[in-house]
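Troubleshooting: if your tokenizer reports a length mismatch, compare your output against this known-good record of 165 residues.
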Amino acid sequence: MEKMNVISDKAKIEKNFKIGNFCIIEEDAEIGDNVTIGNYCIVKKGAKIGDNCKFTAYCEIRDNVKIGNNTTFGSRCTISANAIIGNNVTIKYGFVLTDTPVLERGDEKIVGIVDDNSLIGANVTLMPGFNIGKNATIGACSQVRSNVGDNEVWYGNPAKIFIKS
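Known-good structure output:
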């Protein structure tokens, strides 16, 4: 069966790259070594993905997103434009890092950061302008409406702190 992928000739892709079926990789995207992208994923213009990352199915990585090394995504994750995901992050399925035009200041877009070594449970939403610190854990089905500090555990809707660093 033909894979029917669309990969821009202006994308930079390192070695050991594996891609599923029906994927799109736009211009100026950079994909590191030993990256696996599952079926039906989209990597938008200017996104940068580090080494040893894995995306399962139906992930959307929007414009200018930066993803560190050794980060994994479950299926159906959406990362809004200009967001930053750190190194060694595990994101389960159904994660959405949102944005909104209301939070734009001139040319600056306020989006979120998920810092190094964090664990994000299934079906979590990170609201615009908030960040998740290093080594943090967010429980499944949580909606994060506040900044989460380093080494903290949060869960709920809205998410509240359970363990403080």
